[in-house]
Amino acid sequence: MYRFEQGGFVPCTKIKKAKKHSILVDHLGTPTQMYDEEGLSTWYVELDSFGNLKLNKGDSKTECPFRYQGQYEDVETGLYYNRFRYYDPKDGGYISQDPIGLAGGNPTLYGYVHDISLWIDPFG
Where is the Teneurin-like YD-shell domain (predicted)? Predict the structure, then answer.
């Protein structure tokens, strides 16, 4: 079970078998590290600019399945689920058009965000 920051999509705690793990995130809410109650590192990840796993240290690939804020990794497809559509980290874009069209602010309709160091798209 995961707990998220109030009113958002940023995971802050994982509870597994009555043990709590604190999740550390970067400035955009992307999970990067996890620590157990004793303060020992249990998971660490580095992502490239499209969100692909560059480095993953932990028990398994899905120790923490969250990627960019609002994204959940579907290990069977390799895609990241974003509530309204799927993101493909290999291409750096979504596999379907933005459901709100051009109102989403991206003229490609399949793009993630204009600047991944400043923007997020938690809904897809």
Answer: 9-98
Q: Which amino acid is at 50?
A: F
Q: pLDDT tens digits, residue range 10-65?
A: 999 999 888 999 999 999 999 999 999 999 999 999 999 999 989 989 876 458 99
The one-letter amino acid at 93: G
| Rounded Cα distance, 98 and 4, in Å | 25
DSSP E strands in the chain: the ranges are 2-4, 11-16, 19-25, 31-35, 41-47, 53-58, 72-74, 79-81, 86-88, 93-94
Give the pair of three-digit tokens for residue 27.
């400035």
4 by Cβ neighbours in 10 Å (0-12 / 13-18 / 19+) ranks as middle
DSSP 33-67: EEE-TTS-EEEEEEE-TTS-EEEEEESSTTSS-B-
Find the DSSP H helices in the chain.
none
Domain boundaries, the chain: 2-104
